[in-house]
Amino acid sequence: MKASERRLLMILGVLAALAGGAILTQRLLGRQHSIERREQTLELTQMEAQAMLAEAVLWKQRLDWLQANQPTLTSESQASEKLLEEMLAAAAKHNLVVQKKQLHEASHQAFFHEVAVTLTVLGDLPDVFRWMHGLLTPESFQLVSQLKIVPDAKDKTKVIATVRINRRHAPTITAVETPKDGGAGS
Q: Are strands 142-151 and 159-169 parallel, antiparallel or unpaired?
């Protein structure tokens, strides 16, 4: 083998080694980036878990408050009638004239049962808002799910408000499953 052939063979060997090194480096950098991304994801998950654990006492207190204060639904019709009576009494207290009232069918969700009533009331705007504000206390478990306010055509100083008020009741729980020892983590 001639000297020029040896040099050419050595240059090809060096080029092959450099190309192999570049490919290997690229693959290792790709793995390093994926490991870094996974590490960041795990750190974020750990931070979220720590935040949840830090708030566990607060959420336990909220659950205890809900279980102690949220009304239970014994009869849909009685609950609807009671809600309507309370809304009518509150409207009268705020000098509102009830033009129309409508009871709605009860709704059953996984975490609550809901009864609703829609009232159309006539009155001064501040009185309407004071009435609604009085309805929306946390202890009442009520919310306004629909609201439409328009000026009265006959008396421009008054408004007509159509308000749907919902009251949420505690769900009926038939059985509570407790975690068993020796679960998936054992």
A: antiparallel
What length is written for the chain?
186
Three-state secondary structure call for residue 19: helix
Q: Is the pTM of this model over 0.90?
A: no
| 81, 140: one domain | yes
Residues 128, 158 contacting (CB under 8 angstroms): no
Measured distance CA(67)–CA(70) in Å, rounded? 6
d(CA 74, CA 87): 19
DSSP H or E stretch at residue 99: strand 97-108
Q: Are residues 80 and 48 in the same domain?
A: no
pLDDT in tens, 81-131: 999 999 999 999 999 999 999 999 888 888 888 999 999 999 999 999 999
Counting Cα atoms < 13 Å in the Cβ hemisphere of 147 gives 11
